[in-house]
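Data availability excerpt. The first of two example chains:
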Amino acid sequence: MTETRPVSQVTRGEFRGQAGEYFGIWIVNILLTIVTLGIYSAWAKVRRNRYFYGNSFIDNHSFDYHARGLQILIGRAIVFIFFVVVQIVSVFYPLVGIVLPFVVLLALPWLLSRGLRFSARVTSYRNIRFDFKGTPWGAFVSVILGGLVAFFSLGLLAPLASRWLYRYVFNNLRYGDRSFATDPRIGKLYRAWVPAIIVTLIGAAIAVGLGVMIYAASGAMDDAASKEGIALRGIAMVYGTLIPFLIVYTIAAVLYRVGVRNVVMNATLLDGRHRLFSDMGRLRYLWIVVSNLLVTVLTLGLMRPWAAVREQRYVVGHSGMIIDGDIGDVLASIEASGSAVTAEYLDMEGFDFGF
């Protein structure tokens, strides 16, 4: 008699937070941050993350956030003091101000890799911590070099840069002693890129047309012979072109981000067996983002907690994992092997530098 293999089980995420609950946390965070001139913002971040992590469930178990406010405050203070000292020194030695961007560029990969490690190690699920093993060199190639490639190719190589970035993140991510791995296909990333680039090109054409119309309309009201009139028309044309383009570019960026997220997560495995998944709808998520922004602005920020909870519920609800085998047996095995690894992380998180 042959042994039957357990079928795969789809485990979808669930967010159980409520806007009313989060409003109390949010308003206290805002008030204490103002009263303490920003110092409390480090503890505010901890309270906010603990609420959102603690209400994000998979298989009836929530995530946990273990960072302490002092860790975040120290990391921010180090960065703040560094830039203040550099600014003071550059007053007396202007050459320092010229060298600073290159120093920051050299230090940024190390700060990014440390930040990702911190974020992973202060996150747990079922009492098992995550970890991140990426190196500064990997951060330089995937983030700095990838960003430059995307920028100087005018976005044509953005999918390639996205592939570098998410391979660096997921291929160095661990859950206990189990590894994540991803290798998203470049063709699928370009299919996610096409709608975004179409929206960008259409938006650019509309923005230029609006700019020309504004320039022509302002010319009817101003004396074309005067220098002031010509300058005002030029400024009106620039703003009339730039603002609509930035709005459309932001929309395209949201569409691209959601598409890439779906491709990358659907190509990611845990322990070589269990596949992550994401089925977020691009237009649906765009509507949530836009309507959240409008409601937040119209209510002078008071509906921001409702908007944050609404967005989180959608994102978590359209994410999850396809477990290969019986979910109870799989998670019991991970818990048994991951407890020893978790113990090593308790005093090794370091500081959050805010990058």
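And the second chain:
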Amino acid sequence: MNTKYWTAFSSIEQLDSTFIRRLYNYFGEIEAAYNASEKDLKQIEGLSVRKAEFFIEKRRNLDLNKTFEYVLDKGIKILTFDDENYPYMLRQISDPPVCLYYKGNLSECNLEKTLAFVGSRRASFGGKDSVRKIISDFANTDICIVSGLAAGIDSVSHESALDNNLKTIGVIASGLNYTYPATNKYLYEQIENGGGAVITEYYPTFEPLKFRFPQRNRIVSGLSYGTVIAEAAIRSGALITANLTLEQGRELMCIPGPISSSNMEGVYKLLKDGASMVTSGDDILNTLGWEVKRVVNSADSGKLTELNMDEKRLFDIISVEPKGFDELIAASGMTADELLICLTGMELKGLIEQTAGDRYKKA
């Protein structure tokens, strides 16, 4: 089983993913790479002799099966670089992780519509509300929200995803033995128990050390087709993620805010440098060229079978973004009276709701 060799490699803290992938590419298979002799390793042009010797030394004291079984006993799933289910977008970055350890259900996350939200850990109420508002525009769709499970914007992004029936992926900067920050314990559990997946490149015993957080950021942006920066000071982890997003050739978007806030200095720098400004879900969909698919839960599914033909047509017209009465008349071809009857019936069934300004959206 190849997985145990990948796991053994990644359990050695001082070995980075670049070193492991280099051996894998040279030998063509991970088992051969793991069992290579010191002489074989020294034949690889440009490979650090010191690191090769360090690996050989660590390997002598490593029990391959115990290292692998430790992960399984913790209820942790493993996805390796050579697995066909390894996320396509993540594989394209310059330094993809060799292992993804995770809890939850990654297969239920739509990896073809992944969107990252990042920002300050000391986020303002306004910044958090902006994130909540934009993510609510995607309610009940097939978009998957990615973030770093830290305090502030990260936490709000995951919470908003769960509140709006979206799957979410939390990328952490430690092994899964740790919950950081501890205040996010319930959020971890929500994501793991049906909300998506908590993932990491780190073996379960690896601690959340400071240098691992910027390393983690390349995975947040690497999993995603685009990254939205909510709040960021000039020197911040969010700006590191923004730069990684651009290096990876992904779309960079920013939510504007008050110019008096130090948390907005990084955002406005990015906007001046060409990042897209977003104030709604539609702005993001237009930037990424996405059309979203609405996910209908079982309760809604039963209600939909009760709709007549006019109501079904109208339900398909009403998107996540609210639509006005006149827009619905033009799109549906109904008279005002017919439309009013349909809207009233669908509101009573709990499928749509009226918002400010005589506008309607899916509930």
